[in-house]
Amino acid sequence: MDDEALRARVRAFLAAHWSAEDRHDPVAVRRFRALATEHGYLFGWVPRELGGSGTPGQPLAARVIAEEFAAVRAPGEPDGMSVAMLVPTLLEWGSDEQRRRFVPPTLTGELTWCQGYSEPTAGSDLGSLRTTAHADGAGWEITGTKIWTSGATEASHMFLLARTEPDTTDRSGLSYFLLTMAQPGVLVRPLRQLTGQAGFAEVTLAGARTTELVGERGRGWEVSRSTLRHERSMVGGPARHERLFAALLRLASTPRPDGTTALADPLVRDELVGLHALVEQQRLAGRLRDSGDSGNLLPLTAKLAGTVIAERVSALALRLLDTDVLHGPDRTRWLHQWLGSLGIAIAAGTSNVQRDIIAARGLGLPS
Ligand SMILES: Cc1cc2nc3c(=O)[nH]c(=O)nc-3n(C[C@H](O)[C@H](O)[C@H](O)COP(=O)(O)OP(=O)(O)OC[C@H]3O[C@@H](n4cnc5c(N)ncnc54)[C@H](O)[C@@H]3O)c2cc1C
Fold it and tell me: Considering the domain 236-362 in this protein, what is its CATH number?
């Protein structure tokens, strides 16, 4: 089916089954996602027996579907850590039993995950992490401290890296585990951020128990690279930047008390055109990546480009609001968005490290 025929079919489905008013109703959202999956519009990359629609290898069709869903604010595939990062990792590395146990309830939101990589002494250099996992016949006992763990206060489970080979001090001695948060050996201490929210936490693992090792013992680094790759393409994914830019455009078009709009200002229009070009570039780069025909460099640039867009869009929104001396919910939302964009430049690999990777692996320069 060509793109236009697919678009028409998706639009008809949305017109019949989705009302944007339902978007804040979790039950309606869950029901809609289940129906959309049944019709083959969501989770094509997940096999049917694991709760997906089992139509792999059609990323361009998935992109068209995502665009149509976004146009009417219909809930597409959630892009958080659970669905966009852990599920593809388990499909790649998990045992059959782990896939059966963890993938379906993660797709429906019954299980939610946080990521336990960073530690007080290990961030960019994860190979130096110190949390240990000790095998004792009945499973693994995990001891150490994780930090900056996003969503740890709400998550039911954690995927994490721990050192299983005591004689190593680098990446080679790490293994990848799944852990239940609700157990006596797990202590979560929320950390308050600049925004006043506590989006992440320090998690103390004091003899926490698990039996779930993903992949082979000592090969956790390879498993975690798969999760990180999905994290970076999620952060650099075009959909969220298109949404953000659309919100900026709405803001610039909102009439001020005197009836004028920021959009009428040629300097603002000039900046908007520049940003729109970046957002379009990111969208087209996403399409190329999905087609599998993008070469070595493009996949490496997604996260860094996304970081730049998020920061510049929210900075311009704040400037527009400042000029208009408008305060209130809009300003607070954009302020949080801008502060959040500073965090994105650090999370999932800092921008400096991204530049290093692009230079070395993408351009063949010395790192
Ligand atoms: C909003 C947010 C959410 C996060 N969520 C999670 C989470 O859920 N789970 C989790 O495990 N972690 C999470 N993190 C932590 C994040 O992964 C780390 O902060 C990040 O990897 C950087 O590590 P660090 O803070 O130890 O800084 P460091 O690694 O100590 O870096 C300090 C500075 O040195 C620079 N630097 C370091 N190495 C190099 C290099 N080789 N080349 C050039 N420059 C370098 C960095 O760019 C940075 O400017 C989150 C962070 C943020 C901001």
Answer: 1.20.140.10
Percent of the chain with pLDDT over 70: 98
- How does pLDDT run across 273-325, given as a tens digit for each residue? 999 999 999 888 887 877 777 777 777 888 899 999 999 999 999 998 877 65
For residue 247, CA distances in Å to 205, 240, 302, 318 come to 41, 11, 21, 12
Q: Which residues pair with 60 in a beta bridge?
A: none
CA 151 to chain CA mean position, Å: 12
What confidence tens digit (pLDDT) does each residue in 335-357 have? 989 998 999 899 988 999 999 99
113-218: CATH, from 2.40.110.10, 1.10.10.10, 3.40.50.2300, 2.10.10.20: 2.40.110.10
Beta-bridged to residue 119, according to DSSP, are 122
Kindly provide the ipTM of the predicted complex, given to two decimals. Answer: 0.97
Domain ranges of the chain: 3-77, 113-218, 236-362
Mutation choice for ligand 1 from 113, 119, 148, CB with most ligand atoms inside 8 A:
148
d(CA 242, CA 238): 6
**Nearest C-alpha to atom 7 of ligand 1 is from which residue?**
149
What are 254's two structure tokens? 């909102």
Which pLDDT does position 324 carry in this prediction? 63
User: Which protein residue has the closest C-alpha to ligand 1 atom 35?
Assistant: 352
